[in-house]
Write a sequence for this structure.
């Protein structure tokens, strides 16, 4: 019987098609399930059903407590960085002034020495060396035994024998950012949104979970629908009703509050590091085999 030479021969300098398939060569695709997608009625920070939801102008929805805590922590972090930057600038200014003062003292000493003979010299305290040869903040006071050890040791990596390199603190940005969209955001840019709860007898009897409907067409809101919120009153509609009625009549269907096209905000679906975005909910993993290696370069999974 003929042998399966192409599958049994393993001494080739290149990979066969069967070997590439077994190693997972190429792009692997998998459609994401429901658990990989953030529900539209969940907070983008805590990933739980939102409580007192607030929405930014880009359509990201957060719990009121979550977004306030996030913005407060950002402000505290900015204040801490500003204090560190101010302290560093003050220290640099003092060092410059001290350097100028010492330079003037050296010039006066050189002038006096030239005209009146030798005089006591001033020493820069920042470069003042002790008898062990160490200087600055890392200088140590050693006993007679330690002096001998320091004089004969060759451990140049010790902190006492190495110069310090202070980290440069850059001036931080003073504006808070949205934790989801990374755009600049302020508390006044957030507006509360209101979902219309389905209070029908059948829905209430079948499930204990809350379900929301469009106040115009009474369709149950899910992740498959595109949602639009009004930043004037906060009512949420499906996109079809918003384009058909609200955008044409320039008034809210629920509260009759006037609005304009710029007041329509598209509510984002999905949208965290643990959940997928958009309509093409497909995860891809691309594996490339390097020449002469069975491992090659592996690119992590991408969610689109």
């Amino acid at each position: 019987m003929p042998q399966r030479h192409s599958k049994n021969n393993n001494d080739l300098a290149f990979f066969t098609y069967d070997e590439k398939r077994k190693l997972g060569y190429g792009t692997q695709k998998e459609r994401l399930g429901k658990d990989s997608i953030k529900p539209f009625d969940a907070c983008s920070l805590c990933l739980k059903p939102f409580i007192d939801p607030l929405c930014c102008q880009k359509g990201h929805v957060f719990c009121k407590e979550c977004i306030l805590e996030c913005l407060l922590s950002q402000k505290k972090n900015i204040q801490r960085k500003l204090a560190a930057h101010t302290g560093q600038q003050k220290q640099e200014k003092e060092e410059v002034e001290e350097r100028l003062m010492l330079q003037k003292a050296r010039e006066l000493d050189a002038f006096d020495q030239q005209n009146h003979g030798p005089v006591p010299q001033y020493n820069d305290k920042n470069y003042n060396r002790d008898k062990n040869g160490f200087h600055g903040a890392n200088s140590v006071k050693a006993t007679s035994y330690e002096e001998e050890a320091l004089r004969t040791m060759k451990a140049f990596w010790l902190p006492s024998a190495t110069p310090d390199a202070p980290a440069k603190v850059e001036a931080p940005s003073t504006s808070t950012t949205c934790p989801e969209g990374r755009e600049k955001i302020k508390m006044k840019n957030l507006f509360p949104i209101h979902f219309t709860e389905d209070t029908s007898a059948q829905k209430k009897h079948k499930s204990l979970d809350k379900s929301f409907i469009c106040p115009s067409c009474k369709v149950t809101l899910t992740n498959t629908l595109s949602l639009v919120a009004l930043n004037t009153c906060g009512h949420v509609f499906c996109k079809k009703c918003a384009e058909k009625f609200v955008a044409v009549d320039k008034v809210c269907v629920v509260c009759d509050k006037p609005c304009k096209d710029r007041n329509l905000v598209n509510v984002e679906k999905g949208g965290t590091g643990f959940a997928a975005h958009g309509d093409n909910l497909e995860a891809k993993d691309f594996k490339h085999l390097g020449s002469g290696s069975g491992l090659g370069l592996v690119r992590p999974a991408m969610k689109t």
Q: What stands out?
A: Residues 124-140, 291-304 have pLDDT under 50 and may be disordered. The helical segments are 5-8, 17-22, 64-116, 144-152, 201-206, 239-249.
